[in-house]
Amino acid sequence: MNEPERPSTIAEGLPAFIALPEPPSFDAITVQRVIGALCGSAVGDALGAPFEFLPAGSYRARFPEPVLGGTGEMCGGGTFNWRVGEFTDDTQMALALAQSVLASGGFDADDVWARFVAWRRKAKDCGILTGRVLSRRDWPGAAYDGHVALNRSAANGALMRITPIALAWSGVDEATLMTVARAQAALTHFDAAAGWGAAIAAALIRRAVLGEDPIAALPEVLARVEPDERERFAAMLDVSWEPNNADDLSNGSVWTCLAQAVWAVRHNDRFEDVLVAAIELGGDTDTVATVAGAIAGARDSVQAIPSRWLTYINGELETPEGVVRFDNAGLQDLARALVGRGPVAATAAEPSAGPTEVAPGVHAANLFGAQDAPVSWGVVSLCRTFGAFDGHAARREVFLIDQSGPANADPVTAVRDAVDAIDALLAEGRTVVVHCHGGHSRTGLVLKAWAMRTNGFTEREAHVWLSERWDQYQDYQKSFIELLEAEW
């Protein structure tokens, strides 16, 4: 007997397959915003997870001041006993969606469904609605049945996983992107509001990736929303709206979750402050921080994400082919793939150099020399490490590019992060090694910045100081010298 023909749409106007566009021609800075969106969402998820279901104010009650040493505020635990830095179902579903898009050459409802079902079988956590829907044998009719069974489906589960769609379709017109966002939502969420919330978030992420102010773009984005759905979103995304109003639904709803995330982005200029503000609202903290982290990460770039959080991000995804594990580097490469870029390849090895002490407790090295550091040492890495320091409990992976021209979206924040890490690890009584791949330019930049702040040196005084102590140091990168002279 012939199989029945597969539906060509998920819901009215929402195709079951939408092909990927041609990869966009993004420059290095834009790619760093792409990476910031995906990594920012995962960091928000992992940072917020231990506080899920807790009342407002719980984050500051535990961390009244920033924790710059150790694993920072990545504490693990919570309702589902998450590991330090482990992301939750929010990121897992986003990763399943990302893998499907790359494997299928677009949004393919059948493939996404198969990946969601494979993930659900062993998921540590899954929303009530999503779990019920994915228990069905196939997707046609499943979202409607879930809606009827629970008498609602305007939840935040389709919103929380939207970042890969925003990135993969970031180079096309906004209307197409919003259609894809609504289509993926309709697989599990029958209520149109769930899809429109995901579409609004996707558009804001796209605008931020392209260098626009996502908050300023809200009126234009909202103008694309169907009138029947627009009024409620517009009211809750307005500048006058404040969180935790008695009349609002919980932040498990798509409206309140998105409103709280946008509120956190609107009122905070730094990525770090955005996430803290989102988590401080309590309730579904991981999901609000996931959405806020995606928008803020796209706005501020990966270089604005504190390395004490990003370094420790980790998790697994159950796929139809088996378990896939992700860390910071894996998420960065996945983000690159979503905009047509290949993974970062290992650079040719250089002879081992260091660790060499340049100040009490502070050492310089290149990548291969740093691998001789005892596991008790703190490691500040300024390049890809390919897992070389996973055995070090105290480590930092700082995103910093050694290229001429506009190569770094926010180098001042990245350098400050690295210098803060050196001081925090020293304050814990650790010996610290700072390295990049060759130990030349990036290592020199950070160690000079540290010496300038510690000793009051000028850039040229720091240059002489380091030249006398570290024979691999080179200062060929003019932009690094200018940064220290003008902005440090």
From TrEMBL:
Q: Which InterPro entries match?
A: ADP-ribosylglycohydrolase (IPR050792), Dual-sp_phosphatase_cat-dom (IPR000340), Prot-tyrosine_phosphatase-like (IPR029021), Ribosyl_crysJ1 (IPR005502), Ribosyl_crysJ1_sf (IPR036705), Tyr_Pase_AS (IPR016130), Tyr_Pase_dom (IPR000387)
Query: Which Gene3D superfamilies does this chain map to?
Result: ADP-ribosylation/Crystallin J1, Protein tyrosine phosphatase superfamily
Task: Respond yes or no to whether keyword Hydrolase is given for this record.
Answer: yes
Q: Which UniProt keywords apply?
A: Hydrolase
A Gene Ontology molecular function term of the record: hydrolase activity
Could you tell me which residue ranges the Tyrosine specific protein phosphatases domain spans?
A: 416-462
* Similarity comment: family membership: Belongs to the ADP-ribosylglycohydrolase family.
Protein name as annotated:
Unannotated protein
